[in-house]
From TrEMBL:
<dbReference type="Pfam" id="PF09723">
    <property type="entry name" value="Zn_ribbon_8"/>
</dbReference>
<feature type="domain" description="Putative regulatory protein FmdB zinc ribbon">
    <location>
        <begin position="1"/>
        <end position="43"/>
    </location>
</feature>
<protein>
    <submittedName>
        <fullName>FmdB family transcriptional regulator</fullName>
    </submittedName>
</protein>
<dbReference type="InterPro" id="IPR013429">
    <property type="entry name" value="Regulatory_FmdB_Zinc_ribbon"/>
</dbReference>
Amino acid sequence: MALREYRCAKCGATFERIIRNARDERKVACPECGEHRVRRLISRFATAGVSSDSQEASNCACGGSCACGRH
Ligand SMILES: [Zn+2]
């Protein structure tokens, strides 16, 4: 489950949706005009996570054989 931020391709409204699975994401529509062409924005949380992730990767001692997804 994730809180995701979207911007409508038609009217430009931004809104958040809680996404539990792929089906939820396909149903996302603009609350202002009902448009389904929405663009997912990079959340503040994800942006903050990028720098810590790369830092962790450089410090990872698993040798690339783990399931951490960073190799
Ligand atoms: Zn819209």
